[in-house]
């Protein structure tokens, strides 16, 4: 980690990382969680008459340890609205993964009566095990879904190189034959280690000076500035409020430096231009969730339930406005 005022311990200040620095970073990462026990074993217990668990790929650096799985509800029918839920694109963000699994094991069958639902609970399993934002190659999977996207110097959201994680997701979605998605919710967290480790590491990787920032205390949503859905967002925020608190807006009217457009919602440029997973489909209703698991006012269990509450609030809204 890099405490405030210190440089990240890998690399030379002012010089971007090369292969040696990436290898040092990779070598010093430590497995802290079990993908097999905490994710795969739970998927194996799902009722095969209700859920179809699909292996859609594997991470090429260790395919035996890191197979990739999707869960598709079996009553998939043409004509129903199509819903995609992704978790663990940033593997270290635990409630994105466990919240997706909790959704499957608690309320997904209810919503599958109205929607075609597919869930990718752990897009980046190496990151899940090592509690890392980046993947094995020190690339951010949640900037890798459009490597030819729009780069703006100095912006925190810029596309990076394509990854195993993004390529496998994109290839799998093509197999589903969905012409039009209705909903895509990409589940994330904002953690204290964003500020103490991952932002300093990002600066070091680029050969830049780390500029301290802030971490919002509470839940918030990240919306597409070109396709804001204020009523949908409001329904999701209201549902999350029944479980945990919403992040207050900073004095300058922002969260993580981005403009707050309504309670608990920030806007960013079109996600597909930034290489974000939230821009991987053509869904009219698409957003990224952000939970704060390090808050003294929230437990891990609350964070998992907040992810589910966000999904149910959003889906209930779609059911209501479309008369499903």
3D architecture notes:
The protein is α/β, with parallel strands linked by helices. Helices cover 33% and strands 17% of the residues. It is built from 10 helices and 10 strands. The chain has a 10-stranded mixed sheet. β1 and β2 form a beta hairpin. α3 crosses α10 and α8 crosses α10. The N terminus is likely disordered.
Give me the side-by-side strand order of the main sheet. Answer: 1-2-4-3-5-10-6-9-8-7
What overall geometry do the principal axes of the alpha carbons give? globular
Terminus-to-terminus distance: 49 Å
Radius of gyration: 19 Å
Report the β-strand fraction as a percent range.
15-25%
Number of strands: 10
Question: Quick one: biggest sheet?
Answer: 10 strands, mixed
On the 0 to 100 scale, the average pLDDT is 95
Task: Give the uncertain stretches in residue-range form.
Answer: 1-5
Class from secondary-structure proportions: alpha/beta
Number of helical runs? 10
Helix content: 25-40%
H and E string: HHEEEHHEHHEHEHEEEHEH
Show the helix and strand layout.
Blueprint: H1 19-27, H2 35-44, E1 51-58, E2 67-73, E3 82-87, H3 94-106, H4 108-111, E4 116-120, H5 125-130, H6 164-175, E5 183-189, H7 192-206, E6 220-224, H8 230-241, E7 254-255, E8 258-262, E9 265-268, H9 271-274, E10 285-291, H10 300-322
Parallel strand pairs: 3-4, 3-5, 5-10, 6-9
Antiparallel strand pairs: 1-2, 2-4, 6-10, 7-8, 8-9
Helix pairs in contact: 3-10, 8-10
Summarize the structure.
The chain has helices at 19-27, 35-44, 94-106, 108-111, 125-130, 164-175, 192-206, 230-241, 271-274, 300-322; strands spanning 51-58, 67-73, 82-87, 116-120, 183-189, 220-224, 254-255, 258-262, 265-268, 285-291. The protein has 324 residues and is an alpha/beta fold.
């Amino acid at each position: 980690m890099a405490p405030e005022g210190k440089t990240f311990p890998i690399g030379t200040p002012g010089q971007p990382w090369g292969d040696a620095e990436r290898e040092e970073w990779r070598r010093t990462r430590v497995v802290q969680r079990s993908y097999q026990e905490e994710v795969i074993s739970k998927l194996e217990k799902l009722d095969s008459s209700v859920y179809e668990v699909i292996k859609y790929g594997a991470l090429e650096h260790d395919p035996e340890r890191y197979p990739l799985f999707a869960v598709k509800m079996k009553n998939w029918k043409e004509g129903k609205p199509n819903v995609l839920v992704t978790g663990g694109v940033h593997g270290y963000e635990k409630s994105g993964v466990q919240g997706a699994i909790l959704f499957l094991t608690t309320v997904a069958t209810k919503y599958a009566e109205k929607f075609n639902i597919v869930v990718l609970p752990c897009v980046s399993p190496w990151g899940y095990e090592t509690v890392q934002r980046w993947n094995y190659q020190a690339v951010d999977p949640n900037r890798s879904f459009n490597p030819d996207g729009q780069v703006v110097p100095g912006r925190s959201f810029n596309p990076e190189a394509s990854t195993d994680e993004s390529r496998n997701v994109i290839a799998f979605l093509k197999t589903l034959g969905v012409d039009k998605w209705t909903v895509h919710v990409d589940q994330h967290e904002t953690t204290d280690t964003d500020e103490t480790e991952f932002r300093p590491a990002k600066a070091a990787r680029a050969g830049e000076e780390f500029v301290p920032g802030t971490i919002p205390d509470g839940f918030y949503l990240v919306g597409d500035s070109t396709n804001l859905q204020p009523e949908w967002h409001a329904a999701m925020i209201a549902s999350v409020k029944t479980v945990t608190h919403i992040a207050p807006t900073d004095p300058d009217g922002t969260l993580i430096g981005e403009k707050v457009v309504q309670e608990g919602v920030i806007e960013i440029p079109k996600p597909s231009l930034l290489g974000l997973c939230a821009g991987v489909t053509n869904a009219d209703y698409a957003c990224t969730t952000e939970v704060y698991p390090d808050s003294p006012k929230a437990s891990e269990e609350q964070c998992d339930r907040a992810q589910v509450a966000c999904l149910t609030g959003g889906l209930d809204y779609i059911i209501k406005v479309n008369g499903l």
